[in-house]
User: Fold this.
Amino acid sequence: MSDNIIVDTATRIFADLCEPQTINAAEEGRWPAELWNALEESGLTLAWVPDDLGGAGADMTDGFAVLRVAGRFAAPVPLAETLMAGWLLAQAGIGAPPGPMTVAPVHEDGNIHVGADGKLQGRARHIPFARKAKHIAVLAKKSGAPMVALVATEWLGIREGASLAGEPQDTVTFDGAIPISTGAAPAGLDPVALARLGAAMRTQQMAGALEHILDQSVQWSLDRVQFGRPIAKFQAVQHNLATLAGEVAAAGAAADGAAETIALEGPASERALLDVAVAKVRAGEAASSGAAIAHQVHGAMGFTYEHSLHHATRRLWAWREEFGNETLWAERLGRLIAEHGADELWPFITQGT
Amino acid sequence: MSDNIIVDTATRIFADLCEPQTINAAEEGRWPAELWNALEESGLTLAWVPDDLGGAGADMTDGFAVLRVAGRFAAPVPLAETLMAGWLLAQAGIGAPPGPMTVAPVHEDGNIHVGADGKLQGRARHIPFARKAKHIAVLAKKSGAPMVALVATEWLGIREGASLAGEPQDTVTFDGAIPISTGAAPAGLDPVALARLGAAMRTQQMAGALEHILDQSVQWSLDRVQFGRPIAKFQAVQHNLATLAGEVAAAGAAADGAAETIALEGPASERALLDVAVAKVRAGEAASSGAAIAHQVHGAMGFTYEHSLHHATRRLWAWREEFGNETLWAERLGRLIAEHGADELWPFITQGT
Amino acid sequence: MAYNFHFDPVDLPPEAKELRQEVRAFLRQEIEAGTFVPDSERAPFSVAKAFARKVGAKGWIGMTWPKQYGGHERSHLERYVVIEEMLAHRAPTRAYSTADRQSGPVILRYGQQEIKEKILPRIASGELCFCIGLSEPNSGSDVFAASTRATKTDGGWLVNGRKIWTSNAHNSDYMIALLRTSPPTKENRRHGLTQFLIACKSPGITIRPIINLTGGHDFNEIFFDDVFVPDAHLIGEVDMAWKQATDELAYERSGPDRWLETITALTELVRVAGPQPGEKLAEGIGREVAHLATLRRMSASVAGMLQAGKTPAVEAAVVKDLGTNWEQALPNKVRLMAPPRGDSEPDSNDDRFEQALRQTTLIAPKLTIQGGTREVLRGIIARGLGLR
Amino acid sequence: MAYNFHFDPVDLPPEAKELRQEVRAFLRQEIEAGTFVPDSERAPFSVAKAFARKVGAKGWIGMTWPKQYGGHERSHLERYVVIEEMLAHRAPTRAYSTADRQSGPVILRYGQQEIKEKILPRIASGELCFCIGLSEPNSGSDVFAASTRATKTDGGWLVNGRKIWTSNAHNSDYMIALLRTSPPTKENRRHGLTQFLIACKSPGITIRPIINLTGGHDFNEIFFDDVFVPDAHLIGEVDMAWKQATDELAYERSGPDRWLETITALTELVRVAGPQPGEKLAEGIGREVAHLATLRRMSASVAGMLQAGKTPAVEAAVVKDLGTNWEQALPNKVRLMAPPRGDSEPDSNDDRFEQALRQTTLIAPKLTIQGGTREVLRGIIARGLGLR
Assistant:
């Protein structure tokens, strides 16, 4: 499979089946079955599951590229989460079931255990799409060793919550749940590494959403007439949009860096920490300043529910916080840089390239 | 004396005797004797010394207002320092000698002692104009009690340094120096309180310098033609200058608040901490963003030594750091707010008014 | 000298300080009595309406107006104190605030005697709610491009067209609308607009709600179909609204509502921080408080200048530009200062910090748009600097 | 779709990675040998000149040019690596960098054969220093308003007028100047300008130094009084310079010199912070490194796109706008992150942090002005977005 075929497939599906009304309906709780089914039938949802475990066995970079597109369309489905769950299960040799999935934990201090009786213990907060998922891929510990467990959601205690984007973000209680299957995770795969993968994925979605609001804002500025001319002709608007373009480009470049590194060497390496931290910090800043500009350009219209701008901007506000916000990643990154010391700052940044 | 007479006198003296060449010459080490003498003869330099100690006995608010004017003219003389020294000496009932003075320490961790033998011990860094001052008013400790000492500079070890503005900023070693006179300072007057007064004074100077660069930038934008019209007509320039105007106004308002409170109740109260911290933080931010805008509007011309913009901007860069920078004061302020708690935030800010 | 605007020192008179204590006591009592919860954005309108009557009974609406019209002839500074306490306590003022701040003063200044006598006392008592009909689908920031027209008819005017972004119209009794009565002239594109008082329940008016991105209903679109407005409801001179529009803005632009909209994010952060926050959090809180305290001083200063009979129009625009930019940026700064909250934290139904952060994050975009965009304000300041 | 610009993934070829090690080894050796101290802004020109010859001997000037003109036919990515290492080590490149980056490529593309053969090899060897005569007293950002004129005479041109802000002119052998040869036309205000190669020592040239606010001498004002320029020194088409000016900018705008100018403030902060900084300092450092690493990726991406034969003009403007804004803001951020330094600190003659902070603070203002102001860059990006 080439990059283009996968991305083109995804783009076509979203363009056909991810209209603004679909996104609004999803916020009201209606599952976008048509969209999800098309994604599943195309094999995109299990892109990161190897052939022999029932998946599409695509390159990780292809999966990241699809998430960029999903972000562009504000797709209200757990595509990122299902990709990630499939990847996590595959790490432990567990095949992926059909249907929507999600992962737990999402926080670095995640603390789920498999007891001697084989039952799960623990609680995970802020689990995206938990109530819509059929299964959850859990990264737990058993006697101190990392372990991946596949659990059916129907057995779990779910306390519903919502992200700023109105997407499900639930607290899941695993106490006493019996996994469908479990497998040992490779050494080094812990909630910290898992959060890196999640952060890299969210960064792609953010980059896509930013590309979208740039398009939308440029188009709006060309169409909207004030004081007798399109607002695009005002220097202040031009400068705002030029600034937005810079933020969009930076977020995209940073997201690409994280994706490449994870595709190359997985999330556990020091370089993965570097590139993911850079990406989540930079994309988070771009999300904040970019969304602010897009809203300023759109004026009152962009503040309405009927205009679709908020599909992207509310997701940007939610995603910048998920799998670690800018503060958390900046601190990690700063500590890493400090450990290596001043004279290694430049060599460290240019490592690999 | 009314506000206006004092301020008008100061304005006239600076307008006559504080030309850009005078400021450049001062940076090369030439003492602006004419300017200083005029200030001294007018009584401005000892405005804060009571009549009975040989000073002008003006209101503190008048002194602050004069510093605003001095900042506007980038006056290259230790007027603020001499005012402050006179005030400090007066606290201990010591009369002020003629000639330029400065104070020590300027840092909250200042640590100068008067020994049992009556001699001073200690070293103070970043003392403004030390090498140009005839005397230094020192806030020291004797057996744990605060003590003010007047010392002649000629007996001291001075290691020369310069601020970003090219003004003297020296390290002074007091070891073994015999004060001309000493007096007990009132309880509560310690280097922390002294730094508050210094910060309030610098804030006034910063507010004045900011007013000046706004004037200068507006005028330049009206005079400078690019692409066939004055750059003032470009919306981007207008927005920049409007932003600068806001920063100037905010710095001025914040500086006034600190000056009023200190004039009312001295620097040792909790409210003085609040208002000085607010002022130094807000004016510091205004200095940074304001100087950046002024330079952007002035283009290459403002980066030359022959244009006078740098007289104000380099002082703004130096002053934002002196007597505690934004970080230091913000932390103090944040701790104060936290101590009082969330429900007291609003009442605390509105206290007094 | 370009620096030709000025903020006078603030000196609240003793009666204003006393009044502050009185307002605080009243608000504490109302909160304790359960009259409202401190969450002005989400209070039902019925709560806001009941609250308006209580505030009116206290004499805190139309405070500066003549007694003859139900006002209380108190100072702008006293009014200022009442308003900032209301906002700081997040009291539900929206059933009377527009009338108190904008509509009432316009009627007082330009309205016909009959209307002044009829309407102003009812505003002051908290009985009437107002909205402002300014923006139209094709004129947002550019209010002078309005095309909704009023045509002279027997004994009054017939109104046809559309207004949009009209806050609170669905709850209002009256609207003051800017309507086209003549075409603009070549010399003055602002010519030809006239202000009218329109009863919102008039036949021919249709109100379409516009839901905003928080899911809330504040904006409306209003359709006028041969709506009759009696002659007595004409406000000021025909075609000359542009002369009337500018003065009143100083009232509107510098108020505490221009920098207190997201304060709850900061307050709740201070609560989360506890009495001994770390270096980073203390610094962050201090930085924002420095802005807040400075804005408050500037805002109070404008009130003082109004009281002194000055017209601080540029100063008011400066306060609004600084204030709305600050309050807009605040939730994101608070977010980045907040201690991380992972799986080790307990779940809670009553997470005041999280709620405050979410709500302020969502409303932030509108703060630099409503009531004069950032671009419009900077244009006004630039004009004040002599640049245009 | 408006999002019509693109940053290709970066993939430095193995030879570039090897070259990086080679350059680092060379620079370390030169620093150890005392050839230069890592402080490019303040190295004497004689040091820069000697360094240029060494770099030329290494084959690191004119790297991408044809061998026939003294070049080395290496890739843009190899050149990119050399440049970023030079900057990161603060090597004194100013005796050759302008010629390598801008003047050489212009001569290569538009110069006459005779000049290419005569000049380019001497640039590549590190022998020749160039400056660029663009701005004039009445045309700063608006280069097409230039009025310094070249008038045809026997065998060449006579130049009269003034150029200003010409960096390094007092040290340069040649200038490439943009001169007026015809008036602009009604249809095209950019018409009528021509590029010329001018020997700086030509009779009739007077150079007046302009000291900058750091006390340094970089800028100059240049007076032309009947300066003769031979026909062979005409570069490109007469009156058509506007067609030649745009292509070359991608080379200039996206280079590491657009985001590495103040890096020393960050490096020295990391040194001050030590291996285990507190929460606040760690976060602050991390935030800036995130920007730095992203800028570097984007900058390298533009080099890769140049190598692939693309013309990433808008992308280059984006890198320069982001890069210069970041590097300009950096010193102030570093200042605010730095641990307080009061009387408990020792005095030191060799306070690298303090020195780095001061120097970068002073040069910061020029970073968004030189080589295309922020306003010009944003205009270019806006045009790329289809807004103008």
